[in-house]
Amino acid sequence: MAIEHIVIVGGGTAGWMAAAALSRIRRGRDLGITVIESETIGTVGVGEATIPPLVEFNQALEISERELLSAVQGTFKLGIQFVNWGQVGESYIHPFGNYGYDLGGIGFHQVWHKLREQGDKRPLQLFNLETMAAHFGKFSRTADYARDDLPPMNYAYHINATAYARFLRSYAEKNGVVRREGIVKDVALDGETGFVTGVTMDDDAVIEGDLFVDCTGFRGLLIEQALETGYEEWTHYLPCDRAVALPCNRDDGSPPPPFTRATAHSAGWQWQVPLQHRNGNGHVYCSQFMEADEAHHILVANMAGKPTAEPNHLRFVTGHRKKFWNKNVVALGLASGFMEPLESTSIHLINTGVNKLIATLSLDGITEAQQSTYNRLATKEYARIRDFLVLHYTATRRDDSEFWNYCRTMAIPDSLAEKIEVFKANGQVFREDDELFTTTSWAAVMMGQGITMDGTSPMADAAAHRHGSEIDEMASSIRWLVDRMSPHAQYLAKYCPAS
What we know:
Helix content: 25-40%
Number of domains: 3
CATH architecture of the largest domain: 3-Layer(bba) Sandwich
Radius of gyration: 23 Å
CATH superfamily of the largest domain: FAD/NAD(P)-binding domain
Structural class: alpha+beta
Largest sheet: 7 strands, mixed
Strand content: 15-25%
Low-confidence stretches: none
Shape: globular
């Protein structure tokens, strides 16, 4: 059956990202796209930190970066600072760019390790542009200097997610997407195929469709309540199951830093996401070891200013639907699963879900091969991200609470255990297929939290010897470039002041 009408149930960030991207395929086609959304149903709206692929998503939509960041109170993000994860008092930055670059086919962190063994005292962070710029509160885009002999600047955004959804709604509606206000009270299934044929609104109107995108959040109105798809739970590996979110002003007048901060507490961790004129804050915690009142108290006590809203308490179960695409329903956002926002992957998973949908979609109809391909790729992506998140918890030396004792000693996925053991042997990180996190990402977290290399690649000796002057030049170029960058706040004021 040909796809003539796509119905997106649920708005928010997921719904309007899907609508905006899908609206591009309407050009020259008689394809209807409807978004069903209700002003009376709130969105979670706490995912304000992003990762670099979102920059490419907006570029593909031909959205002006200046206009977007101005509309969403946006700031630039060069990485994530992790505080108290290895031990209380320790911190490190997981940067978006690479440490140096490969030398003779060997990862730079392996060559650096060999240099350390030979007496070189320079920290690895000196060889990463994003870390150094973040440390000094500086920022510049690659386009501002555009020199082949200088490293590129890799960045993402901090955004107001609710404002981002509004921005994309305007974009999508200009491209012919229709918004329907109201609440879905019933879902109709075809008696023979089990496909969703339409939804009944609270005013009894029926909206029919050929393909449905479920963006209804945790409840999964279509994917779970109607199709009973099932859920794979990962609470054993990622035990945090609660969060409290709360925005605040920066009462001390401090400028917004160009990085997200994740600070570990006794039974979870706290995020700080700096927008241009306020901070987004939240405390993710495990209800087995902490009550909601204590989590809220810890959050308020560690914010940069007074709260500007009532606390938003959330419950979640880490994991994903057993199928992301079931019959003629594709789940996106929280309807598809939940990965805690430790590495800012929430909006990214919407992004890649939309990309996979467009890549596999045929308007001639829906096939088993399309569903199978989509589900296999999405399942693999979730599993790889899961392993990276679990790494942060298991690679701790903290023994100051029951929560951290559990995390330090819990069983971990075999795929993660293997990755850690290979890294310990000689610093090697194998990035498989189109895995999201890079060699630098894995190395940054492992070394940042105390996992050390017991040896180095046999090729690292030769690389360290042959490329000594080149290595010196790497550090000099980064230092020279950071010295000439503008402070992050000044860059924002000139480039994209918030409207």
